[in-house]
Structures are given as structure tokens and as C-alpha cells.
Amino acid sequence: MIKVGDTLPDVRLFEFIDEATEGCAVGPSAFSVRKRAAGKRVVIFGLPGAFTPTCSARHLPGYIDAAADLFAVGVDEIWCVSVNDAFVMNAWGRQQATAGKIKMIADGSAHFSHALGLEQDLTARGMGIRSHRYAMVVDDGVVATLNVEAPGEFQVSDAESIMAVLR
């Protein structure tokens, strides 16, 4: 499992782009995790799935509510990463009103979750391979803080826990 002091894995993730710009069409857009995190302070929180109960009622909304405070203490970007495709992450982001606050990032094939060592097999529950619930602070691509939840828990990966580390 990734740990504090490790560099983020160099995998590709996807973000849905709603508006076409020069060189960037509407639709899923791939990016290199290391390149995107370079020179930035990023909060990345991972969760089992879009539209799932705890993720939709508590985890994502907590970061939406705390976004301005996180930006005020020097966070450049906040990424919500889930093992869903970019279309699902975009729809969930629209439903939760994340625009301008949270980047809704798709790890559709669980490559990022696997590279972090934070994947979990929820096949028996009909969900396939998913991510554990976690939150990390990353400075210039290096993990500065990592909070991983015990199975079924939601106590250390919430926005308040990350704000406490950054204050």
C-alpha cells in the first residue's frame, strides 16, 4: 500500500470535460496523475462508488462544503476518485453540484486504486473491484498525509479530518 513519502503512481485517470476548449473536446479526457499533481497541493479522496449511500450522503458533500476552506489553506485541487467511468462521475458531480469545487475523477478500470494498493473486491456484493475509502494530501506528487478507513468505517477520510491536518 502507498504510504507517506511515496510518489503517486504514474497512471492515467479520466475527467469528463463539459465544455470544449482549444485542444480539448467534450467528453472523457485522460491525464497523467503525476503530471497533473506536479507543483500542486492536491487533496485526493477515494471512495467505493458514485451514488452509493455513504459516498453520496456524507463523503462527497463534506468536501463540497469544505472546498473553500481547503482552498484557503493552500490546496490547489480536490479530486474525488472512484472506480466508475467518467460519464458516471460527471453525472454524479452534476447531481451533487461539484463544479468549481471538486474534480470528479474516474478510475474506471481500478488501475489507480490497484497501484495505490487500495483496491477491494466487492464482487460478492455485486460491485466488482472498487476502491477503499481514503483521503490523502499530496504535495508536488508526494503523499504527505494518508488516512485509510477500516472496512465499513467513515471516520478518518472526511473533509474535517483533512482540514485538521492542514491547519
How would you characterize this protein structure?
The chain has five helices and nine strands, in the order ββαβαβαβαββββα. The chain is α+β, with helices and mostly antiparallel strands and 167 residues long. A hairpin with a 7-residue loop joins β6 (119-121) and β7. The radius of gyration is 15 Å and the shape is globular. Belongs to the peroxiredoxin family. Prx5 subfamily. It catalyses: a hydroperoxide + 2 glutathione = an alcohol + glutathione disulfide + H2O.
Q: What is the CA-atom radius of gyration, in angstroms?
A: 15 Å
Q: How many strand elements?
A: 9
Secondary-structure element sequence?
EEHEHEHEHEEEEH
How helical, in percent, are the residues?
25-40%
Percentage of residues in DSSP E strands: 25-35%
Determine and state the CATH class: Alpha Beta
Strand order across the largest sheet: 2-1-5-4-3-8-9
Domains, number: 1
- The CATH architecture would be 3-Layer(aba) Sandwich
